[in-house]
Amino acid sequence: MENYNKFIYYINKIIDIIFISILWTVCSLPVFTLGASTITAYECIHGSVFHDQGYVFRTFFSAFRKNLKTGCLITLLFLPACLLSALSLYLISQQSLGNLTYLFLILSILVFAACFLSLLHLCCIAARFQYPVNTLVQLVITVL
Q1: Measured on CA atoms in the order 35, 36, 42, 43, is the torsion positive or negative?
Q2: CA-to-CA distance for 116 and 85, rounded, in angstroms?
Q3: What local confidence, expressed as pLDDT, does residue 119 receive?
Q4: What is the rounded distance in angstroms from the CA atom of residue 102 to the CA atom of residue 136?
Q5: Sign of the CA dihedral running 58, 61, 66, 70
Q6: What's the confidence (pLDDT) of residue 1?
Q7: pLDDT, tens digit, for every residue of 87-108?
């Protein structure tokens, strides 16, 4: 009987993670809320899944309201760099100038990946340590 309870417990955790993923996707549809939804998903997984604190929906939406300002600020600071690198990636992929095109294509992919991963890393820092907004802006400037 105890194995059955463990099985149900882990199935509930998997379903919670699926719900958090769906909520993250829906809340990230407006691109400027990507940071807020990422911070919220991190907090929700840490609280609801790892430590059994509260329900997923209630935890997610209360954390989303709490982190909306900070997450949108982080996203709006990184969004121009991500968009410019994605635009350059698109423009370079339309050219056919030989080996030099592939070099610039790889460089554009690396710049886009660095911008996007820095955004996600900073969102995780914001979720984990609860810094004030001015400290997060200093971290954004340091990362850029």
Answers
A1: positive
A2: 10
A3: 80
A4: 36
A5: positive
A6: 44
A7: 887 887 777 667 777 777 788 7
Q: What is d(CA 90, CA 99) in angstroms, rounded to the nearest whole number?
A: 17
Angle (CA) 77-78-82 rounded to 5° is 145
Here the tokens at position 127 are 């979720």
CA-nearest of 16, 5, 1, 7 to 52 is: 16
Q: Is the pLDDT of residue 46 over 80?
A: yes
Task: List C-alpha distances in Å: 49 to 9, 28, 44, 71, 124.
Answer: 11, 21, 7, 22, 16
Query: Taking a C-beta distance cutoff of 8 angstroms, is the pair 78, 115 a contact?
Result: yes
* pTM across the whole model: 0.75
Query: Concatenated DSSP letters for the chain?
Result: -HHHHHHHHHHHHHHHHHHHHHHHHHHTSSGGGHHHHHHHHHHHIIIIIIS--S-HHHHHHHHHHHHHHHHHHHHHHHHHHHHHHHHHHHHHHH---SHHHHHHHHHHHHHHHHHHHHHHHHHHHHHHH---HHHHHHHHHHH-
- 108-144: per-residue pLDDT in tens? 788 888 888 888 878 878 887 777 767 776 776 776 6
